[in-house]
Specification:
By secondary structure, the chain is an alpha/beta fold. 37% of the residues lie in helices and 15% in strands. It has 3 domains: 166 residues, Thiamin diphosphate (ThDP)-binding fold, Pyr/PP domains (Rossmann fold); 161 residues, Rossmann fold (3-Layer(aba) Sandwich), CATH 3.40.50.1220; 170 residues, Rossmann fold (3-Layer(aba) Sandwich). The chain has a 6-stranded parallel sheet, with helices on both faces. Strands 15-14-16-17-19-18 form a 6-stranded parallel sheet, sandwiched between helices. Helix 1 runs parallel beside helix 7, helix 3 crosses helix 18 and helix 11 runs parallel beside helix 14.
Length: 562
């Protein structure tokens, strides 16, 4: 590695030079006192800066950009409240293994620790929610730190890295030290899978009668979707796909069994329960999928392929660990495996689908939210990037959106961050300007970062916004209905703003739909229109996400609502 600009540069310019050097085309941020020097350098930089209306919106936009493109998303913020406002976005990226670079301003090094105006220990605050972080105290270290930050964020298991830069470091000028090849003692981000481990995987598959692939976000992160497709289809291995893995294996393929776990279809969870071999590929057995780990796939041997050795055996006992890059492991397995048809197992799964189908309730006088989401899926036909917020609509989207390609379904999984959807869609659209982007929001999450409508309008981003308005915080209300005797504490709105007028206030065309007969036409019209559009769907307020396995339950513990 070498630095592209060797003349005297101050710290702010070194940061911008590094961003250009690593091919960053767009960054998201919000200025403030301790990053004025950085923003002065941004003025002349060769990348686009997107001024959001809130730092949290900037962080989620960088996250959406990263998920949609596979590149490192970059967010800038000032010290103190600016930095703390991006903490939720950093934690979101950390839980979902998203490559993110957060660059924050800090009070001068001589003022640190004195409760200086807008001082916050963002280095200490973010230690638990970053893959790594830095407090830059010497200008001479800055260039190499930027190189390390990019390297760490996007290698191995991706994740967020924070670089906190005091104001005096930003203004000090030096001749930058050349970047050198990044070598971090003890950090081996891409271990090669051991042949013996892969051979054990293949042998387990050879003797299995009811194998099941359990696909996570690691497939997309490793770019292994083509190898995965061959591996599954050549050996008749059915697959369940987590929220992070949606699209890495096409949802419309006969071997695809959909979304597992708490709100997965009955047939999906029963397939896990009846399997004799779980091939966990780049997933982490999170509690919303595995539930009661002592009862997870009780008759199955578990193979876990993951680049992060810390995940293997963390929650579910693993008989065959395969540590290494998933794509490399699948390439090796494809050379060893003998394709095997499994007609009896596939026939059994077909029977389970017939016996326990996902049911979309019929529309009556009210719009069913499931119908809206199914219609969005039908109209977009797998070609749009679908972004969700968090709540009931997110689970219906996981059940009903047919994803056919990687990086076309974006959602906050591990942290479950309301307010994620709108700014993440914005980032996805900046990253993929030629692709249609649709964001599905609930009325609650939509209001958490509603100010980003201004950013969308300013840049004329053609994002289509579907607001599923049930007049309440639906997922919490559902739990209160089922488990707290319908004591709806602080989940039913006593006032609801007019989202159509709000959209029009931002010069974004808005429409409200309350008649079930108008849903299809409204979605088609929204998708055909140029520029940003908002459609508010007034849906049945007491509709619930079913099936449902209560927290801590096993694959057969389906909660039957009264």
């Amino acid at each position: 590695m070498t630095n592209l600009k060797k003349s005297t540069r101050n710290g702010a310019q070194i940061i911008c030079d590094a961003l250009e050097h690593f091919g960053v085309g767009v960054v998201f941020g919000y200025p403030g006192g301790q990053v004025i020097p950085l923003y002065d350098a941004v003025y002349d930089a060769g990348f686009k800066h997107v001024l959001t209306r809130h730092e949290q919106g900037a962080a989620h936009a960088a996250d959406g950009f990263a998920r949609a493109t596979g590149k490192v998303g970059v967010v800038l913020a000032t010290s103190g409240p600016g930095a703390t406002n991006i903490v939720t976005g950093i934690a979101t990226a950390n839980m979902d293994s998203v490559p993110l670079l957060a660059i924050t301003g800090q009070v001068p090094t001589t003022a640190i620790g004195y409760d200086t105006f807008q001082e916050a220990d963002i280095y200490g605050i973010t230690i638990p929610i970053t893959k790594y972080n830095y407090l830059v105290k010497k200008i001479e270290d800055l260039n190499q730190i930027m190189a390390e930050a990019f390297y760490i964020a996007q290698t191995g298991r991706p994740g967020p890295v924070l670089v906190d830069v005091p104001k005096d470091v930003q203004v000090t000028a030096v001749t930058p030290q050349p970047m050198t090849e990044v070598r971090i003692p003890g950090y081996n981000p891409a271990p090669a899978p051991q042949r013996e481990q892969v051979e054990a995987l293949v042998e387990a598959l050879r003797t299995s009668r009811r194998p099941l692939a359990y696909i996570g976000g690691g497939v997309t992160a490793s770019g292994a979707d083509k190898e995965l497709f061959r591996f599954l289809t050549e050996s008749d291995i059915p697959a369940v796909t987590t929220l992070m893995g949606k699209g890495s294996f096409p949802d419309d393929h006969p071997l695809a069994l959909g979304f597992p776990g708490m709100h997965g279809a009955k047939y999906t969870n029963l397939a896990i329960y009846e399997s004799d071999l779980i091939l966990c590929l780049g997933a982490r057995f999170d509690d919303r999928v595995a539930g009661n780990v002592r009862r997870f796939a009780p008759n199955a041997k578990v193979v876990h392929v993951d680049i992060d050795a810390a995940e293997i055996g963390k929650r579910v006992d693993t008989q065959i660990p395969v540590v290494g890059d998933l794509k490399a492991a699948l390439v090796m397995a494809l050379d060893l495996v003998n394709p095997t048809p499994r007609p009896e197992w596939l026939h059994r799964l077909a029977d389970l689908k017939k016996q326990h189908p996902l049911i979309i309730p019929d529309d009556t006088a009210e719009i069913k939210p499931q119908r809206v989401i199914k219609t969005i899926s039908d109209v977009t036909d797998g070609e749009a990037i679908i972004v969700t917020d968090v709540g009931q609509h997110q689970m219906w989207a996981a059940q009903l959106i047919v994803s056919k390609k990687p990086r076309h379904f974006l959602s906050s999984g591990g942290l479950g961050t309301m307010g994620y959807g709108l700014p993440a869609a914005m980032g996805a659209q900046f990253g993929c300007p030629d692709k249609p982007v649709v964001v599905i929001c609930g009325d609650g999450g939509f209001q958490m970062n509603i100010q980003e409508l201004a950013t969308i309008r300013e840049h004329n981003l053609p994002i289509k916004i579907a607001v599923i308005n049930n007049g309440c915080l639906g997922m919490v209300r559902q739990w209160q209905q089922f488990f707290f005797q319908k004591r709806y504490s602080s989940t039913i709105w006593n006032f609801m703003p007019d989202f159509v007028k709000i959209a029009e206030g931002y010069n974004i065309p808005g429409r409200r739909v309350a008649n079930p007969a108008d849903v299809r036409e409204a979605v088609e019209t929204m998708m055909a229109a140029e520029g940003p559009q908002l459609v508010e769907f007034m849906v049945a307020p007491e509709e619930n996400v079913l099936p449902m396995i209560p927290s801590g339950g096993g694959q057969t513990d389906f909660f039957e609502a009264e």
